[in-house]
Amino acid sequence: MLDIGVSKLLLIGGIALVVIGPERLPRVARMAGTMLGRAQRYVSDVKAEVNRSMELDELNRVKREFETAARDVGDSVNQGLNQATQDVNDAVGSLEPPSPSASTDDDTFRWEDPPPVYQRPNKHWRVKRGAMPRWYKQRQGVRQHVQSGAARVARHRPRRSPG
C-alpha cells in the first residue's frame, strides 16, 4: 500500500503549515482525522458485511448438506420399514386361518379374539395402596387435619370447673 514513514509525515505537515497557515491548520487536521475515521469505519463495515455474507453462504451450504443427509437416512429407514412390513404381510398371508371344522380347544389359536384392552387404574391408586387405615392413625395419634396454633392451644388448655 502506501509507505508513509515519519520523515514523509513531517514533510507533509511542514507543507500544510506553509500552505494552510497556522490559524486554520488545527481545524483542517481535525476534519482530516474525522474523515479518516469515517473512512476506516466504512471499510470495516464493508469487511464485516462481506464476512457475514460468506458465513451465511457457508451456513446455507452446511444446512443443505445436513438436510440431504437427513433425507437420505429417512429414505433408507422408510425402505427398511416397507421391506419389513412386506415380509410380515407375506408371512401372515401365507398362514391359513383355522378351518371351522377344527376342534375348538382352549389351547388352539383363535383369529376372532381381540387383544386385551388396557384399563387405566382408578385415580390415586398408589396413594390408596400406601395409605394407612384411619383406625391406625387414630390409635397412634397421627394428626389428620391441619390446625392453627391457637386452635391447638385451646384444645389442650385445661377446662375451668364451674364455680
UniProtKB/TrEMBL annotation:
Protein task: Part of the twin-arginine translocation (Tat) system that transports large folded proteins containing a characteristic twin-arginine motif in their signal peptide across membranes. Together with TatC, TatB is part of a receptor directly interacting with Tat signal peptides. TatB may form an oligomeric binding site that transiently accommodates folded Tat precursor proteins before their translocation.
Basic residues composition-biased segments: 153-163
Protein keywords: Cell inner membrane, Cell membrane, Membrane, Protein transport, Translocation, Transmembrane, Transmembrane helix, Transport
Transmembrane feature ranges: none
Primary subcellular site in the record, as a coarse category: membrane
Subunit annotation: The Tat system comprises two distinct complexes: a TatABC complex, containing multiple copies of TatA, TatB and TatC subunits, and a separate TatA complex, containing only TatA subunits. Substrates initially bind to the TatABC complex, which probably triggers association of the separate TatA complex to form the active translocon.
Name listed for the protein in its UniProt record: Sec-independent protein translocase protein TatB
Membrane topology designation: Single-pass membrane protein
Alphabetical list of Gene3D superfamilies matching this protein: 1.20.5.3310
Localization of this protein: Cell membrane; Membrane
Family membership: Belongs to the TatB family.
Region (Disordered): 87-125, 138-163
